[in-house]
Amino acid sequence: MVKDLEIPDASAVETTEKLQSQARPEPKSGPRRFSLWQRVQIWVGGWAGFLINTLIGITLRWDVFGWENWEAARRLGKGLIYTFWHREIFSATWFWRKRGIVVMTSQNFDGEIIARVILRQGYGAARGSSSRGSTRALVEMIRGLRRGADAAFTIDGPRGPRFVAKGGSVLLSHSTGAAILCFHIALRDAHVFEKSWDHFQIPRPFTRAAIFIASPVVVPQNAGSEEIEKAQTQVQTTLDHLRTQGEDWVRKAKSHNLGNPAPAV
User: 0.90 cut: is pTM over it?
Assistant: First the structure.
């Protein structure tokens, strides 16, 4: 789905105020130019990624824990900021498809392929990454939330460290009042790319999957630096707890004893 950004060397309050001042209509820059061969690869890669995600996704059997938390977040009425770990992109792309969620994708060749995949699965794309165009992409996400769309972050992306939450979701919530909705996806059987920094996971066809959804976190728009820092700690703690729940679920699933985990925080 989306890559998180690194926060500039300024206070969170100052950064949010700057983003808010930039979140006004402006001319869009032209698309990046690719060679004919690159355009062919992008077309093939976009369709291949979409088909693989769909063909595996339709076979997954889901257990959903904490859906009432999604409903509670939706009732707040200011949009949602889906927040999760980078390694869960494949499964999350399928689960949350066709909702118009705006996600950040890189402006490079790989990012163009990813953008084609997610657009076909019913997402919107804000172009940028932690190394290039991050502020512009975050401003696009602010505009999307103000128009009524939701947003999403892989909060430890795009390069890690794994399971360390960055500040993109908290900044976005502070800028818009939207609710941060942390979730975690656990897979009974998956192919794990052990050499990748995030241990990226692709579920095996027909496996069982579980999604754990936590209570929403909202950062008031008048919050100071201390309150913003507290919210960031809460996001990290919440995601860690959800991951623990997921690991417990996997152990039970593999032993054919699928009991209910403890409620999400």
Answer: no
